[in-house]
Design a protein that fits this description.
single chain; 226 residues; mainly alpha; rod-shaped; initiation factor
Length: 226
């Protein structure tokens, strides 16, 4: 017996009877799930497509409309769930990127702070090194200047000492020359004194001889006159 020979009302009744277990499963099991649960949406979509197809065959517009509405609702909820899941994934990804960016910014700030601190420490070290080098250079220049001053003072002292020694030598030589001259003059004076004494002695002798000769002549004249 063909389908067209069976009254549509009987077929509709038979479908409702055959659909009861599916409706019971929906009411007792799937209805307790979340309205956007993927399993419930797939079940409701399948049931809606079945109702729409059977309603179209049996010319049951209400069943066809309810089935199409249920399938469309399931598709809409599925799309909404997919979009929400996609949005959630995007949001999670954005949050992860934000967290990563935040961590990177924090890391960059930390690195910048560390770089700044290292730069400050390097600047302090460089300044301390420049100060130490400048102090060493200043000490070195001061030591060299003191050495030059000491050497100049030593040369001047040596020059003064040499001049003093030369002056003392000149004084000593002058004194020696003066002593020699004085001794020479004293010797000359002594020689002259001895010469004068000798001449005086000789003069005294001559005078004595002259007196003797005079007395002798007087005696001879006296004898001659007598």
């Amino acid at each position: 017996m063909s389908v067209t020979s069976i009254p549509l009302a009987v077929l509709r009744f038979q479908y409702r009877v055959a659909r009861l277990p599916l409706q019971v499963a929906e009411d007792r099991f799937f209805a307790r799930m979340e309205s956007d649960a993927p399993v419930r949406l797939r079940y409701e979509r399948s049931l809606g497509l079945l109702d729409a197809a059977v309603g179209s065959v049996l010319r049951d517009k209400d069943l066809q409309r309810r089935g199409a509405a249920l399938a469309e609702r399931s598709d809409a909820l599925s799309r909404a769930t997919r979009l929400e899941n996609a949005a959630t994934r995007k949001r999670d990804h954005a949050e992860e990127e934000l967290d990563a960016t935040h961590d990177k910014v924090i890391g960059d700030i930390g690195q910048a702070r560390e770089s700044k601190e290292r730069a400050v420490e390097d600047a302090k070290s460089a300044a301390a090194e420049r100060k130490r080098t400048a102090e060493e250079d200043a000490d070195k220049r001061a030591a060299e200047a003191k050495k030059r001053v000491d050497e100049d003072a030593a040369r001047q002292t040596n020059t003064i000492e040499s001049a003093k020694r030369a002056h003392q030598e000149e004084i000593r030589a002058s004194e020696e020359r003066s002593d020699a001259a004085a001794k020479a003059k004293l010797g000359d004076a002594e020689e002259k004194r001895r010469d004068a004494a000798a001449k005086r002695v000789q003069a005294d002798r001559i005078e004595q001889l002259a007196d003797i000769e005079k007395k002798k002549r007087q005696s001879e004249r006296a004898n001659n006159n007598a």
